[in-house]
Amino acid sequence: MKTILVDAVDTFVIENHGIDQDMHKLLETFSNKKIILTNANDEEAIRFGLVNLPYELFSLKHQPNKTDPKYYKIMFERLGLKKEDVIYFEHNPEAVKSAKTVGMNTYYFDPEKRDLVGLKNYLTGNLK
To answer: Which terminal residue of the chain, N or C, has fewer Cβ atoms less than 10 Å from its own Cβ?
Structure first.
């Protein structure tokens, strides 16, 4: 079963508002494991509200950032995952591009539109 990789800030967690509850409800409709990916260091994790989350949080604390393909290579190694075992959605176009360069199935989630129907369609269509 594929793991759903979820971007943290501006996607799953909205700064100064907390977890996007509608997105959380959507994700809970899938039995797949979920892991939240971030660049945040410990101080930023607290500042952005990346504490007491319902899913595992993974960060390399800016060494490197998600805009560097090396981030995903290290993440695969540390989490024991393969690119074909995951799908990922992310709000930063540069991080999306970076993830795609390592062969990850990645969806751009526009943080302004917050299209949960489009996200649901992506998840449903790619978790088979």
So the answer is: C
The alpha carbons of the chain give a radius of gyration, in whole angstroms, of 13
Cα–Cα distance between 74 and 66 in angstroms, integer? 11
How many CA atoms are closer than 13 Å to the CA of 73, on its beta-carbon side? 9
Domain assignments of the chain as residue spans, ordered by start: 3-126
Q: Which residues of 41-52 are buried (b: 16+ CB within 10 A; e: fewer)?
A: eeebbeebbbee
Cβ atoms < 10 Å from Cβ of 120 = 15
Architecture of domain 3-126: 3-Layer(aba) Sandwich (3.40)
pLDDT in tens, 76-123: 999 999 999 999 999 999 999 999 999 999 999 999 999 999 999 999
**Could you give the CA distance from residue 104 to residue 87 in angstroms, rounded to a whole number?**
7
Confirm whether pTM is higher than 0.85.
Answer: yes
Distance separating alpha carbons of residues 117 and 29, to the nearest angstrom: 13
Q: Are 34 and 3 in contact (CB under 8 A)?
A: yes
